[in-house]
Amino acid sequence: MEVAKEAFGRSGANTSLDDIAKQARVGPGTLYRHFPTRDALLEAVYRSEVDKLAAAQRKFAAEMAPVQALRAWMLLFVDYVAAKQIIAPALNTLVGGPKKVFEASYGQIHGAIGALVKRAVESGDIRKALDPTDLLRALVGVSHVALGPDWKESARRLVDILIQGSRVNQR
Fold this sequence. Notes:
Elements: H1 2-11, H2 17-23, H3 28-34, H4 38-63, H5 66-91, H6 99-122, H7 132-143, H8 151-166
């Protein structure tokens, strides 16, 4: 999946599946057995990224303080959106369009950030009025800084600004 994600990011939807198989060190038959079409592989890559976000929410909540878990997940989300911007044009090649794929993932993503925000609010660290959907919208905006060479550093700073602005006792 990682090899396919990188290949689609580099070369778009027309990336050769045989090249992906070669880079992944599997035979073409193995790739085609699991992903009979390019569309199937594109969708699997996208769903894998969403599943990673959902799993990260649970892991971070179990291992970190509420605000730190929220921050860590937000940083991961920025990377996800940057990857989605690369993969989304390729997903547009899916028969029927990517809308079905995106709609299915929305619930997972909204549930993950909703749980993290709720936990941070209950801890008393984050304002009660913070709407997880507003935070998601801000994160999508943060991810658009991916155009510059220092986008990761900028995104980290912007995530920290969002966290600081969401805290109950800001200074």
